[in-house]
Amino acid sequence: MRDGEEMTRRQILGIGGALGVMAVTGLSAAAALSRRPAATGAELRSAVPLPRPFQVPLPIPSVLAPVGRTGGADRYAITQREVTAEILPGVRTRLWTYGGTFPGPTIESRRGRPVTVTHRNELPVPTVVHLHGGRTPAASDGYPTDLVVPEGWHRAGPGARGDGARGDGAHGGHGMPGHGMDMGAGMSAHDPRAVTTEVTRDYTFPLDQRPALLWYHDHRMDFTAPAIWRGLAGLHIVRDDAEDALGLPSGPRELPLMIADRAFAEDGSLDYPSLDPALRDRPGVREPYAAGVLGDVILVNGAPWPVHEVDAARYRLRVLNGSNARHYELAFEDAGDGRSYDFLQIGADQGLLAGPVTHRSLPVAPAERYDLVVDFSRMPVGTLVRLVNRLGSGRTRDVMAFRVARKAADTSRVPRVLSTDLPAWRREDAVRVRDFAFRAGRTGDGGTHGWLIGGRAFDPTRTDVTVRHGDTEVWRLVADVHHPVHLHLSGFRILSRGGEAPLPHDAGLKDTISLRPGESAEILTRFDAYRGRYLFHCHNAEHEDMGMMANLEVI
Ligand code: C2O
Ligand code: CU
Ligand code: CU
Asked: From ligand 3's centre to the CA of 323, what distance in Å?
């Protein structure tokens, strides 16, 4: 199973078209690994003129005010709606948003203080909200068929496409999982366990978990990738007293950075190669993009290649790769002499590390979060520091820039011990070892190509893995191309990569692991949170939509 040759042959036999191109670049898994192909996916080219970098200021998503605070819980309300925004200067772009902005509003919360968010769906299609990284009961975890259907929605069957009319006797039912399997994607069936609601839904998050940068995003079955691309993503930060007491850079010196690539069509809309641009019936993307959709514009917090003025002081940067498929290798470079500055990593997906780790560059896969501290006091006032992606080229090599504007006092610190509450799981505690292969393959009889876990495409009616509550397990994961693998509900530790010690940036508690081409890894986790139906999947959002997702039942 782990043999590189075998993997490559399956890749070549099992896939065609664009995936064939990828197979060619990955003829030998070992060669692929040594060359580290920068991308799994194909890049869309924008058809509008793109702005020069470092002209627009970095936006900071606004923090959402609660609509109520009762009985130790905070209540929020978010309306999902379509808006027109100016992302590129002078270009008007239709977006699907949480609350009218992209990124959506940030929710700030305290560890152990429950939050209920009432989402109202005013978009033209069903939606599902998932809090990525949340330790959330199954009913609020955003299972892909737990749809919130908009007013007037009915499933458009054959011959009933696209009108969305209400009260049609023949198609009047609401809330069937809205994907047209009769149309050839061949990935799933009606899900009897789905709990759909009309127009609104309350999602309740206990947030009984380590402080961390989480994010919420759409998770509708078969259509997650285009929905996120259109703007359905926002940040959610969990804090606690212990973290506050550390003295890390804070206030205006703590910056959330949601990095995401996009492409723009001639009319200013976001370009995306959907087979069904209405995102109603037919899932999937045009063949050349089946390995992942990349854009040629890099947005940070929704702005193209922004610039941010900083004090000559330490800053805490809370980085999320919110891209569908693009990987980054981040580095801080002096725009003058090109030299790079090292920086500290203080946290991973699921919160603070035991202690800081120094990096000169840092790979960041889709959905991963990294908590960084950069010391701008080491740079002369006036320096322009570029945050670059060493995997990018041309315009996509730049991400954003910081201009060191002024000298300033700095009382922040980065203690050598950051946290002492990381789980103490050991490999010896594992009661089971499971193997999962993340690979391209064919689904259904039509031979539609897709992305598979253990040779199977996602089916909401099939339980793939049953675990016992409280059990500790080791999972061995192996990949053909890049697959950022995400586990809902439970954070994990990375035990090994390619049979060796994990990489320096693998430290801490994770919920997403970046598997590189041909790579295997072992993760260790304990299922001690909630019982119920959860997921694990590839977070290349196109792979996810094309089958690379599986059910996990905690009993
Ligand atoms: Cu970020 Cu299942 O998702
Ligand atoms: Cu998740
Ligand atoms: Cu993948």
From this structure: 13
Ligand nearest, relative to CA of residue 136 = 2
**Hey, which residues does 534 pair with through a beta bridge?**
552
- Assigned token pair, 134: 């949340």
pLDDT at 446: 63
Mean pLDDT, residues 382-396 taken together? 97
Lowest mean pLDDT among 112-116, 334-338, 446-450: 446-450
537 lines ligand 1 (CB under 6 A): yes
Say yes or no: domain 5-36+421-554 is CATH 3.40.640.10. no
Residue 503 has pLDDT above 60, yes or no: yes
Q: State the CB neighbour count (10 A cutoff) for residue 163.
A: 11
Ligand 3 centroid – CA 484 distance (Å): 6
Average the pLDDT over each of 148-157, 196-205, 320-329 and give the range with the smallest value. 148-157
Cβ(132) to ligand 1 under 6 A? yes
Q: How many angstroms separate the CA atoms of 147 and 159, rounded?
A: 23
> Is domain 68-244 in CATH 1.10.10.10, yes or no?
no
Question: Distance, CA 116 to ligand 1 centroid (Å)?
Answer: 19
Proximal ligand: closest to the CA of 128: 1
Mean pLDDT of 17-26: 37
Q: 19 versus 502: which is more confidently predicted?
A: 502
* Same fold flag, 5-36+421-554 and 260-407: yes
3-state helix, strand, coil in the chain (%, to 5): 15, 40, 45
Q: Which residues surround ligand 3, an ion (CB under 5 A)?
A: 483, 538, 540, 543
- Across-strand partners of 201? 119
Per-residue buried b or exposed e for 380-395, using 16+ beta carbons within 10 Å of the residue's own CB: eeebebbbbbbbbeee
Average pLDDT, the chain: 89
Residues 6+ apart with CB under 8 A from 229: 262, 270, 272, 293, 324, 541
